[in-house]
Amino acid sequence: MSRHRGRIISGVPSTIDSSRPHPARFYDYWLGGRDNYLPDRRLGDEIASYIPGIRAMARANRAFLGRAVRYAITELGITQFLDIGTGLPTARNVHQVAQDVDPEARVVYVDNDPIVLAHARALMSGTPQGRTAFILADLRDPDSILNDPTLAETIDLDRPVAIMLVAVLMYFREADNPHGIIARLLDAVPSGSCLVITYPTADVDPKGADLAAQACERAGITMALRTRAETETLFTGTDLVDPGVVHLDDWHPELAEAPLFEPDPYSGPAWAYAGLGRKP
User: Fold this and answer.
1) By Cβ atoms counted within 10 A, which residue in 34, 103, 200, 222 is the most buried?
2) What is the CATH number of the domain that holds 104?
């Protein structure tokens, strides 16, 4: 564990495998980032050949994250965030959005990719009043997150927390028990907390989505798609806020900031659902 001007980084670096694609890196590629390798770009391009609007959808997912953070603070009064499956630092990270609204907001980032850990200092540049931290851990073992001392040092689990599972749960098969993992996380936070999820779907174009999922599977990356109804089950234990589980762009568009990226020619619906549920 190391500290940087009040910010905490927890985790033991391991070797970065650049020979195999990693979700954090091909997502970074779609967003126009530079922290990716040839295998990431190859897979990203193959998926884009089946889902022509994937880059626009990745950006729509990022924009939704910002809207959800602002909603949590302004409508629910939540100022603590546990962002699991953080990915590589990019435009408008959770702490940047949150601390623009409330400078005292606190954020813990979690990811299992060593390259994300290597860039974690970029996630530490928050306000002096707030707190940010990074934990190298895997969502498959939620107790490794909940029991990490960094979490308790940064977030008060007696006060509401926004659990952010944005574009991460599709890497879990039913055998991995995603519902149980979510239940464990919800058990650890008090009433008034919320759960934020985005999840890709084949509902828009079953053939294209299936081909993209097969490409991921060939690369050794699980890609389990869900229908809207199946996505809604992930919010078990919470009360969905309006408008419920909807396509990314349809979730509280009035909370949008100025566009983060250059316009993309794709104009169809995002092949992903989004929602926010509140723990009663």
Assistant:
1) 200
2) 3.40.50.150
Count of the separate structural domains present in the chain: 1
User: 192 in the Ramachandran plot: left (φ > 0), alpha (ψ -120 to 50) or beta?
Assistant: left
- Give dist(CA 124, CA 107) in Å, integer: 10
Cα separation of 244 and 273, whole Å?
Answer: 10
Decide if 33 is inside a domain: yes
Q: Which of 266-275 are b and which e, b meaning 16 or more Cβ less than 10 Å from the residue's Cβ?
A: beebbbbbbb
How many other C-beta atoms lie within 10 A of the C-beta of residue 204?
Answer: 17
Q: Is residue 261, in this structure, part of any structural domain at all?
A: no
Whether residue 260 is contained in a domain is answered as no
Residue 165 lies in a domain: yes
Where do we find the tokens 């994250």?
Answer: 65
- The whole domain housing 184 covers 2-11+20-253+268-278
Strand 131-136, strand 246-247: pairing: unpaired
User: Distance between CA atoms of 228 and 248, rounded to whole angstroms?
Assistant: 12
* Tokens 């939540």, residue located: 78
**What is the DSSP secondary-structure string of 120-166?**
GGGG----SSSEEEEEE--TTSHHHHHT-HHHHHH--TTS--EEEEE
